[in-house]
């Protein structure tokens, strides 16, 4: 059922939920229409950019890079169930004192988490919809007063996951052959970056198979680093042996602190991470998306010997260059 982008005037229920009772999430339904009017109490709204125009279609979203990135940010965040702990924050979230700290993902009172049908043994992916009459009672954020307090503590915009945002993100959800929303069937997953201003971290080789195919096989002695911008870089492992990150650890607030008292017994060498990180079915940032684009083949028409850039891109010798994708 296609989404209808009309102007609905509604207010949240007195006791709206972010997740149903008993630990169960609401199964996905095709009916994603906004709820009926509940009360005259409305939340405090803050401006989040870019603006979401009326009568929106996915073609219009795809034609606007800023709006497309905004939609992908929403899709990444809502692919996790509520009450998950995240380190990454979108650029349109308040930064400052919140930028380097973990934060808990919650729903406003008029939004419900639901799961997307996924392939057998595939990772579970979630989404959000507006609350409807008959939904179970809440587990976490139950009132707008609690929502405002949460936003102030976690540094979350008060209009996060408002109705227009939910409509925008649902517009970008994959659909199966029957036109029903479902989890993405792609084979690539993307690791959560550290906050801006912190350091890169190295992925454990056991996670390379989750990445786009260009990273499945890299040269010996090289590792894949996740930059705070989200970009994935292939570098020689020696570059990280004396990196300051090897002498730091994450404290309980998500901040990097000195590690001498905690890591002196560990062997020297780069720390590898990966499986404990959050992984999303879409790139977390534009920089990550660009770094995961397919191979480029640089052909030099004459000159020196061929080589490799570390990821497996073959480079041949030259005066002129031609680019092709593989």
TrEMBL record:
Species name: Westerdykella ornata
Domain of life: Eukaryota
Polar residues compositional bias, start-end: 14-33
Disordered, as annotated region: 1-36, 305-326
Name under which the protein is recorded: Uncharacterized protein
């Amino acid at each position: 059922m296609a989404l209808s982008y009309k102007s609905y005037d509604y207010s949240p229920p007195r006791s709206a939920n972010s997740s149903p009772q008993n630990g169960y999430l609401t199964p996905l339904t095709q009916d994603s229409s906004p709820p009926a009017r509940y009360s005259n109490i409305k939340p405090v709204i803050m401006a989040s950019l870019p603006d979401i125009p009326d009568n929106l279609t996915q073609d219009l979203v795809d034609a606007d890079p800023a709006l497309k990135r905004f939609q992908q940010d929403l899709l990444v965040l809502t692919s996790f169930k509520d009450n998950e702990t995240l380190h990454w924050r979108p650029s349109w979230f308040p930064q400052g004192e919140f930028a380097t700290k973990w934060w808990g993902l919650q729903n406003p009172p008029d939004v419900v988490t639901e799961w997307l049908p996924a392939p057998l043994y595939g990772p579970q992916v979630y989404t959000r919809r507006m609350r409807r009459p008959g939904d179970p009672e809440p587990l976490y954020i139950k009132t707008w007063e609690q929502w405002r307090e949460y936003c102030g503590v976690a540094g979350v915009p008060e209009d996060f996951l408002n109705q227009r945002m939910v409509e925008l993100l649902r517009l970008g959800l994959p659909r199966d052959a029957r036109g029903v929303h479902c989890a993405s069937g792609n084979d690539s997953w993307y690791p959560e970056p550290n906050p801006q201003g912190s350091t890169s971290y190295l992925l454990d080789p056991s996670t390379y198979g989750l990445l786009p195919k260009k990273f499945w096989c890299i040269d010996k002695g090289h590792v894949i680093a996740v930059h705070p911008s989200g970009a994935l870089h292939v570098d020689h492992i020696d570059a990280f042996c004396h990196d300051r990150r090897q002498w730091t650890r994450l404290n309980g607030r998500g901040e990097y602190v000195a590690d001498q008292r905690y890591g002196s017994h560990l062997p020297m060498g780069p720390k590898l991470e990966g499986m404990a990180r959050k992984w999303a079915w879409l790139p977390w940032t534009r920089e990550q998306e660009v770094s995961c684009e397919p191979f480029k083949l640089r052909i030099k028409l004459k000159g020196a010997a061929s080589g490799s850039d570390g990821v497996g891109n073959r480079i041949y010798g030259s005066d002129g260059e031609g680019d092709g994708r593989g």
